Structures are given as C-alpha cells and as structure tokens.
Amino acid sequence: MSPELAARFAALVSARDVLDADAAKPKLSEPRGLYRGKAALVLTPRSTEEVAAIVRLAHETGTVVVPQGGNTGLVGGQTPDGSGEAILLSTAKLDRIREVDAEGDLMVVEAGVTLARAQDAAAEVGRLFPLSLGSEGTCTVGGNVATNAGGTAVLAYGNTRDLVLGVEAVLPDGRIWNGLRRLRKDNTGYDLKHLFIGSEGSLGIVTAVVLKLFPAPRETATAFVGLASPHAALELFRIARAHAGPALTGCEIIPRIGIEFALKHLDGARDPLAEPHPWNLLLELSSPLSVGLAATMEAILEEGFSKDILQDATIAASGDQAAAFWRIRMGLSEVQGHEGGSIKHDVSVPLGSVAVFIEEATAAVEAHAPGARVVAFGHLGDGNIHFNVSQPVGADKATFLAGWDAMNRVAHAVVHAHHGSVAAEHGVGRLKRNLLREVKTDVELDLMRMVKKALDPKGLFNPGVILEETQS
Amino acid sequence: MSPELAARFAALVSARDVLDADAAKPKLSEPRGLYRGKAALVLTPRSTEEVAAIVRLAHETGTVVVPQGGNTGLVGGQTPDGSGEAILLSTAKLDRIREVDAEGDLMVVEAGVTLARAQDAAAEVGRLFPLSLGSEGTCTVGGNVATNAGGTAVLAYGNTRDLVLGVEAVLPDGRIWNGLRRLRKDNTGYDLKHLFIGSEGSLGIVTAVVLKLFPAPRETATAFVGLASPHAALELFRIARAHAGPALTGCEIIPRIGIEFALKHLDGARDPLAEPHPWNLLLELSSPLSVGLAATMEAILEEGFSKDILQDATIAASGDQAAAFWRIRMGLSEVQGHEGGSIKHDVSVPLGSVAVFIEEATAAVEAHAPGARVVAFGHLGDGNIHFNVSQPVGADKATFLAGWDAMNRVAHAVVHAHHGSVAAEHGVGRLKRNLLREVKTDVELDLMRMVKKALDPKGLFNPGVILEETQS
C-alpha cells in the first residue's frame, strides 16, 4: 500500500486508533501461532460510521479488509495473509452495550463487547444470555456472530444464530445495513441476518447485534456420571432428554484420559467419582421453574442404574462442587497442551450416530497412529465431539504435528461415513476451506460462491476465508 | 404458451399429474378469493427428479414457475398472475414421509406432506413436532418452510425456521441442492437453508426437509384469565415467563369481543369465566418434566392476583376443558367471518411494546372508522398480534372492505412507530410487497434484490412475490 493511501485510511479514525507495530503485533497472529500475517494498517474504529468510512475507501481503492474480534478463533479466519496489503479492522473499540431491555428480553451490543461482558450485562438485570464458551473472557460478540459460535449451552438455547434478533453490518461497498430488529416474528422477505451470521467476515462486517435474553434459572442440578462406553452415554442422554426436555441444559462427555490429564495438570482438580470409569458424562439441569430439579436428576440416574447404563454417579451437593465438575470439562483443551502436540477435529454427526462415531474414529486413529492418545470429548447432546488426538508419550511434537492432515483424513473419513460436519462450531476460516469439497456438493459450493459474488463482487472481504480466493 | 411447449412440460410427468381444468381450478385462486390466476399447466410431480426436470425446461424456455403447497397462504404468494403463461407446480404429490428417526430426534418429510400428518408421524414415535397453526390439516410442510410459518408454539419452540435442520431444494436453474443435513451444529460456510426458508418460492422450490423432533410433554396446565387491559396481560406474561421459562408454551391474548363472537358463532362454546372481562389471556404450560405444573400455574396466578393484575382465572380441570379454551382461540378467525367484512393486520412489535401498541392502534382505527370493531388477538408472548377489524354492525361489507388499504395505513403507522413488522407470520406474497418500502431501508431492499438476482437471474421463480417484478 502506498504511503498516500495509508494516510488516507489513517485519517478516517483518530490517531490513537491507528495501532503502532507493538500494539498491532498480537493481532497479527492467532493464539496457537498456526497463522501469522501482515497488514498495511491495523485500525480500531470507534463507531459504525468510522467502520463504514474505512470500508468505503477500501471499496474505492480495491483494498482487502480483514475483520477481527477477540482474536480467539481457531481456524485462522481473523488473520490477514502475508502480503501486508490488507487493512486489519479490529472491532475492539466498538465496545458499547447500547441498551439492555430486561422487560423486552433483549439487549443491543456492539461487536467488540466481550462475551463475558454481555453475559454480565444480562445477569445484572436478572436475565440469562446463555452463550458460553471457553474463551468467553476474550472473544467478542461480533466474533461469536461471525462464526456462529456454539459452546456448552447449545443443547437448550441453540447456537449463536438462534440468539440473534437483529444485525447491523457494514457491507463490502461501505453501506451500513441497519437490521437491528427486535422482533420475535418478522416475515418481511429474505432473512438476511442469517447470511451474515456464520459468514466469518467474508460478506461484510457485523458492527452491532440485538441479542435475546432469557429468564435466569432458579434451580440447577449437576451430576457427574461414570459409564462403560459412549453408547451408554448416549442412552443416558436420551433418558435425560425425555425427562427434562429443555431443562437439560448441559450434556458433556469426558473420557477417562481427560480426567487423568486434568488430575495431573489442573491445580486442585479432584476425581468426582471414587473409581475410574472409561467414560463420564457431565449432566446439568437448570430451569426458571422452582420444582426440585434434584428429584428429576435422581429419576434420570435411577432409570440409568435400573437399565444398567450407569456405573456410578454423584450429584453436586453445592454450587462449588458443580463448578469443580465443569472446571474439569472446560480445562480439557488446556490440559492437553501439557501432554505435547494435539491434532484437533471439531466434528459433528447426527445425534443417533455419535456413540458409534467415537468408537469407529478411535479405532481408525489408533490403527493409523499407534500410541496416539485419543481425547474425544464435548457436546454429546449436540452430536458435536472435539475429537482431539494427543501425541504418543515421548514422541517428537513436531514430527507428530507434521502428520496433521493425514490424521485429519483418517478421522474425517469416519465423519463422512456418518454424514457429519468437519467444522461443527469453530468455523472454516483458512484452516478448513480445502475440506469443504469433501462435505459439499458442487451445487452447494456454487451457491456459496454466488452469494459471495453478489455481496462482495470485488472479493475484498476476508478473501481466502471459507471459500478459496477467486479472481475478480 | 405454445401447444408444443405445453406438451414438452406435460411429457415430464405421468398423464394423471397434468391436472385438467376441474382439478386445476381450486389451485388457481386462494382461499379468500383475493387472488385468482391462470396457468398454462398445473403439474403435480411425484419426485424431486420430476420437479427438477420441469424447472430445467422452464429455465431453458424462460417459463415462469409458481410453486404451491396446500394453498392456504393468506398473502397471494401461491397464486399465478392472470397471464396464463406460468407453470403452477403443486407439491401435493411429494407426500412421502421419508424417515422418522425417534432416536435421532428428527424426521425427513417431503414438501407436500400436510402439517397434521407430520405432527402425527412424530406423535406415533412418542415425539413432538411443535409447529401448530389453524390450517394444519391442509397446509403443507413445504409451504410452512417457504413462508417460515409461525403459529401458537413459537414462544417455546421458535418459528418454522428454528425447526428445520436441512433442506432439499430445486434451484431456479433446475439443479437439485441436497442440503438434507441432520446436524445440530454445522459451520461449514454460509447457512443456505435460511435463504430458502421464508423465501416464498421466489428462490427455488423446497422439495423435502429434515425437521427437529422434541420430547413429548408429560404434563400440561392450561389457564384462562380475565384482565382489565393489554398492559395487565403483558405483566402476567412476564410473571409466567419468569416462573416457567421454556415450559411456558402458549400465551394468547383474546379481547372480550372475540369471546362474544365465539359464544355467538361457535357451536357449544361456553364462556370460561363467570363474568365478562375486557381482556383474556390463555396460558399454557407444558413440559417433559413430571413436576406438577399445576403448582407452577397456581404460583403464576397467585402472583398475578397479589399484584392486582388479574380479575379472574380458571385452570382447566381436564384435557377437554383445556381443548375448549383453545377452541375459542383457534376459532377467532372463523367467527369473524360471520360478522361481515374484516380487515386484517398480521403485525408484530417488540415484546415490551405489545400492550401500548394494541391501545394506540385501537384508538387510531376507531378514530379513523367509527363503529368498526377491533378484534386484536393472538400471540402476545411473541409480540405478534392479529389486529383484525370487523365492519360496523349493519355496514355494507363491500364498502367497508374498499377501505382496506386506508385502514392498513392507519394501523401500520402505529406499527412503524414501534419499529414493528407488517408481515409477522403470514409472509409478504403479492399482498404486502408494496409495504416493504415502509419497513425496509433502500440498502436492505437492495440486498434482497442482489440475492434474488444471484439465485434467479432470469426472474422466473414466483415473480412479483416479495419483491416487485424487475426486468431481467
């Protein structure tokens, strides 16, 4: 980029919002260091109008724009390429909570508000904003929307997509689309917000959203269960869902090796059960109903015992104990980092196939890489498994990680056999765009390109993310 | 259309699927007779492949295609224009339930399956398919998807959009998009199903869908409440939602005049309460939890009484009594037909504004048309009111109905003041396309046109529905 053009961009925001090299650096690589990029400028505009001015100039001058939220994405969708020609447009300072309307069960927040702040703003008025994920202290609502983030509350509340009533976005030509609707029902034509949600910044940049709020739960019951197999876990999920319906708000599977990693690497972690079990299920019921959910949890566990599905179970006697159960679950990604290299698969399969998927994929991976340690955990009730593979004990990390793509092929073949997704909740980004050909027909890829071309004919918004770059 | 071309279309299906004039006639006007059209051919293909063959020929020859489901739509979206050049493509014989997977909590049904059959198929395996609306015996799942149908269960289960996991559609160029995914989480790029859902047949034709199933409720508690005002109804809704959360599965407001119409015109209808009240609320709790929902309902009503929100209330003592409450609610459209002309407004406003909307719109309409009888009823908990206006007693029906657009302008002005929707759950069709300019910015209309042009560049699919016709 010419100094003249850079100066024109810089003039669109205040001087403190043109980041210097030190401030820019952490935004130019993603957390695991898989992607590093360069940018002509890193800008942190403070208003939708400033964003629009930047994008208009980019459109006029053919400049690439890469939007970035909290920079916690795991697929490289927030990192510019190495050319140094792009504008990195950070939403960090679009950080106002514009309104919290408890009576209307909604709030209007800007894209750069962290998820934790959004949750807190809801809690302050006695409401629940249910989206919850490991990076919630850092990730932003805009990033959650751009990636249609999932997390641990999808079972009862849906993905981010299901929590959004309205969207404000700057389109690739610099126009502002004010779609900040507050309506539960609105059938006035194509529902455009769903195009932007999950588009990973490739169709424009989301600057603010209207989010749904829910009644805060009055009661919670949490249980930690030991089981023999993923099949038993799936059976118990079905029992729990039949008993509790939407009050089943968490159903996370954890393998024994995950417990062992946690006991070894998480300060103060304790085994929730007296004996080790091959598999565990973390069950959470919660509801605004004041109805003794503990009794429902007991009924679920009793039915599980009577059908020989359970080996052991404990119900949390306090909020602290429930938090300790969840800490093991939420620490699983971190503890794997202490066990050397880990090759990840963020996959989903239809609910009915999740147990057989875990068994088949484990067998396939163990045959492919003897000694590799499968750590398959996560959102059983959504059919979404984080099928991670830790390196063999004592193996060389770099050598193990060099086999990333080959390992992916082995695990994804099992996903494909069950008509699953290879990008269940983290998105496609740059990491997985080559995989789309395996899971999408030509017709669908073509539809996606038609949409991209219609909204971003110059291909300036996050090129190379989701779809391969095409010549404009 | 030339006889030669008509013969080419007819040859794509079996002879019995080319309807003769008698069989075609009921499909060429919509139920209220507001729209009547002509078609070169009315075809009832029996497979997705037959649909695709028809659409390919239409694409090749520049022939307009109008998709039609159960022909229950209220906005003229299913009726061809008067030119007689279009193919009316009825999904009536795409009527297979391809699969019901109770364990996976899903079913795969073709577009022409009636909603009632889909509900029954779910119930047969002990599951709930919650979509529920007045025309469910006749309307089809494909039509529900095309219009993103709402109904009485949106409060707890969402609109049709929220109940669809996957879509199979024939695109305007005749290609089949198989998007019949069965996944609860899938972030592999743009979520194209949301483009087709609610597109009213203007972007292609949905031929089959994967629908979510839910646990069947074990318990239901239903109450009929008398109140002084819509404000009191909204306050009671908030109390109910705080107590019951997702177990609040129905919250319908009914004005006194609606009860009176029902008592007069519905066989065997009885007033649920001893005394008349200006407003009534039908509350339903249901849940798979076995927890004594009656106690929760009592707690809701007690809080309502203690805060002087309620005037009277009765809890249904039996399923029959609950059904009698619902019969009054579901009969409200029909009974208005016995009271002369009725001008309809299918509108929504943000939840917090629904009570003041009813009051303001009623005052505006009564000032505009003295003697006109406002019958404002419906889905209070969704902010979606069927703001219908019955003619003054003894007035001339045709004269009254001639004031449809003027009346709309008066009521819609109040909708606009509250940033509401003028097409909340019935869609846009031909009836409301002129209204979109009032509720959409130019940017949004332009986005919609960009999408239409990208998917249907020749403008052959349901032209004039949602968007005004454009020259291709």
SSE order and pairing:
Two copies of one chain form a homodimer.
Chain A: H1 3-10, H2 21-24, E1 41-43, H3 48-61, E2 65-68, E3 87-90, E4 97-101, E5 106-110, H4 115-124, E6 127-128, H5 141-147, H6 154-157, E7 164-170, E8 176-179, H7 193-196, E9 205-212, E10 214-215, E11 219-227, H8 230-244, E12 248-255, H9 256-265, E13 279-287, H10 293-306, E14 310-315, H11 319-330, H12 332-337, E15 342-343, E16 346-348, H13 354-368, E17 373-379, E18 384-390, H14 397-402, H15 404-417, H16 436-439, H17 442-455
Parallel strand pairs in A: 1-3, 2-3
Antiparallel strand pairs in A: 4-5, 5-9, 6-10, 7-8, 7-9, 11-13, 11-14, 12-13, 15-18, 16-18, 17-18
Helix pairs in contact in A: 8-10, 8-13, 13-15
GO molecular function (chains A, B): catalytic activity; FAD binding
Domain FAD-binding PCMH-type (chains A, B): 35-216
Pfam families (chains A, B): FAD-oxidase_C, FAD_binding_4
Report on this model:
The structure is a homodimer of 472-residue chains. Chain A has 472 residues and is an alpha+beta fold. Chain A has 4 domains: 3-90, Uridine Diphospho-n-acetylenolpyruvylglucosamine Reductase, domain 2; 97-215, Uridine Diphospho-n-acetylenolpyruvylglucosamine Reductase, domain 3 (2-Layer Sandwich); 219-333, Alpha-Beta Plaits (2-Layer Sandwich), CATH 3.30.70.2190; 341-428, Alpha-Beta Plaits (2-Layer Sandwich). Helix content of chain A is 34%, strand content 20%. Chain A has 17 helices and 18 strands. Chain A has helices at residues 3-10, 21-24, 48-61, 115-124, 141-147, 154-157, 193-196, 230-244, 256-265, 293-306, 319-330, 332-337, 354-368, 397-402, 404-417, 436-439, 442-455, and strands at residues 41-43, 65-68, 87-90, 97-101, 106-110, 127-128, 164-170, 176-179, 205-212, 214-215, 219-227, 248-255, 279-287, 310-315, 342-343, 346-348, 373-379, 384-390. Chain A has a 5-stranded antiparallel beta sheet. In chain A, strands 12-13-11-14 form a 4-stranded antiparallel beta sheet, sandwiched between helices. In chain A, strands 15, 16, 17 and 18 form a 4-stranded antiparallel beta sheet that branches. The longest helix of chain A has 15 residues, at 230-244. Chain A is globular. The mean pLDDT of chain A is 96. At the A-B interface, strand 8, strand 10, helix 8, helix 10 and helix 17 of A face strand 8, strand 10, helix 8, helix 10 and helix 17 of B.
